Amino acid sequence: MSNQETVQMSAEDQKFFAEMDYHSTYGKSIGIKETVWSIYADSEYGEIKFGNPHPFGDNAVIRHKCDVFGPYNELVEIKGKTWGDIWVAANKAIVRSGDQHHIYIEGFRQGPAGELRLQTGS
């Protein structure tokens, strides 16, 4: 196998790295340093653009709860209708929790009354 063949990325890998760069660049542009967006196009949400509307409706809130690490139970209002607003609220919930280990935003589970239960990883 030549060096060119070993260095060449698949189209799928290129797309993944492009998404990862987009997330990182967007986060830096709005001053987020504490968390990492880790939801990609192959998720149930499809490809996320932070300026686009999120599907969770008005009056949604982020719940970040853990009984093992902490414990903590943070509730943060989402102040806006875009995916970027979701990240800002999730970031705020993670920072408030004090859990600096689980900083990867990996998804949300729908809870009662517009509540989104934040799923994080490390």
Task: Write a brief structural summary.
By secondary structure, the protein is of the alpha/beta class. Helix content is 32%, strand content 23%.
* Helical content band: 25-40%
H/E element string?
A: HHEEEHEE
Helix/sheet category: alpha/beta
What's the overall average pLDDT, rounded? Answer: 93
Q: How are strands sequenced across the largest beta sheet?
A: 1-4-5-2-3
Radius of gyration: 16 Å
Shape annotation:
globular
Whole-number total of structural domains: 1
The number of helical elements comes to: 3
**Sheet of most strands:** 5 strands, mixed
Q: Care to count the β-strands?
A: 5
End-to-end gap: 35 Å
SS strand fraction: 15-25%
Structure notes:
This protein has helices at residues 3-7, 11-29, 83-97, and strands spanning 36-37, 61-66, 72-77, 104-110, 115-121. It is of the alpha/beta class and 122 residues long. It has one domain. Strands 1-4-5-2-3 form a 5-stranded mixed β-sheet. The radius of gyration is 16 Å and the shape is globular.
Keywords for this structure?
122 residues; alpha/beta; five-stranded mixed β-sheet; 3 helices; 5 strands
Write the layout of secondary structure elements.
Elements: H1 3-7, H2 11-29, E1 36-37, E2 61-66, E3 72-77, H3 83-97, E4 104-110, E5 115-121
